Amino acid sequence: MQEFRFQNYAHRILHKKTMYMLSPLPLLENHWVDLFSRALLLHMGPEKLLLASIVAMSIFPYMLHRADSEEVFPEPEADGPAAENSSDDIDELWLSPGPPPRVVDVDDYGARAAGADDSEAFLAAWREACNATDYPGMFLVPEGRTYHLMPVSFHGPCRAISITAMIRGKLEAPSNRSVWLDHNLQEWITFEGIDRLHVQGGGTLNGNGQQWWINSCKVNKSMRCVTGPTALYFRRCTHLVVEDLEVRDSMQMHVAVAYSWNVLVSKLFITAPGWSPNTDGIHVSNSKEVSISECIISTGDDCIAIVTGSMFVRVTGIFCGPGHGISIGSLGANNSWAHVSDVLVEKATLLGTTNGVRIKTWQGGHGYAERITFQDIAMHNVTNPVLIQLLAYVIYATETYAELALQKWPSILFAVKLFIAMV
What we know:
It is a single chain. This protein has about 425 residues and is an alpha/beta fold. The protein has helices at about 10-20, 30-40, 45-65, 90-95, 120-130, 180, 210-215; strands at about 100-105, 135-140, 145-150, 150-155, 165, 170, 185-190, 195-200, 205, 230-235, 240-250, 255-260, 260-270, 280-285, 290-295, 295-300, 305, 310-315, 320, 325-330, 335-350, 355-360, 365-380, 385-390, 395, 415-420. Strand 1, helix 5 (about 120-130) and strand 2 (about 135-140) form a beta-alpha-beta unit. Helix 1 (about 10-20) crosses helix 2 (about 30-40).
């Protein structure tokens, strides 16, 4: 049986050492040790190792405080993937009832990992895996190889019972901005219109966004403002699972989920320099029943942004920093209607961020953000722990019920209903 788990000798050794150091802490869950041991491994160099050590020392004691919190909204009745089953080994595809998956290796379709564009080989392999009638399909990117991809879109619907994109190798985006600007492209790797899609494997997606950052109008005021591409985009997907990947140095947003339902995102390692503009970690829009958990996000913008059309979003166990914190919005740009509801953010740790948790809107917009709960959140060296930005005003929330502060501006069009339960 071929094993598709993340297997790296150095990672296993570091994991064992981390477990040994934390042996007096029996309440610490094993997946947290795995997550942070991988972060320590990936942050090579003295300065980054020192930062990772500070991160670990700050978050581990907090993780002992695991008091159960009251559910803010009931669990959805949909038949999608449950959070407690998100870390099942891929080997269970062979062990579960039904036919075994049909594995389609991109190398068998002409991918050479030799520095040239491998997009056509990837698309050919995807079509074969997607059309595996009456079988689960597995689209395999082998470990230990680096593939260069031009902007590429993997479309459904698929005839396969389910489809797994097993990304074990490394994917590299073009560093030349003209690849996107000349064709008005806004995405690098896109999955669209797919039901029961799993994307995982322990591999790396490198957006090579440095040229976008230094030519941004936020960094260089003489430059024209243009929108950069998103590294990994999911559109109109249902029963979606995304886990165990590294996404780094995106041109702008790293991971985006839009117009999707029943989504589970977990164990992602997302990183970009703190000065890189507009490099949101995870961006959710127009999606319902979304769970984001156990991710480490260090970027130059929002670690997580939840924008209009999103409902029943749960964010738990996130480490964020550096960056701009966890945000609802922006909402209401260009005098538009916007709405976000039923959002729970809990058991998060923020270190060295500009903001902690915030709600931000545009002047002239209208709509609502309601049933938003922030609770059980640890913040260290955060400039604005709780920030409510409404129209042209900035309200620093110091009361338990930030809604009380809104009475000073009765004319605002956004009805913000927010409960903050900070520890």
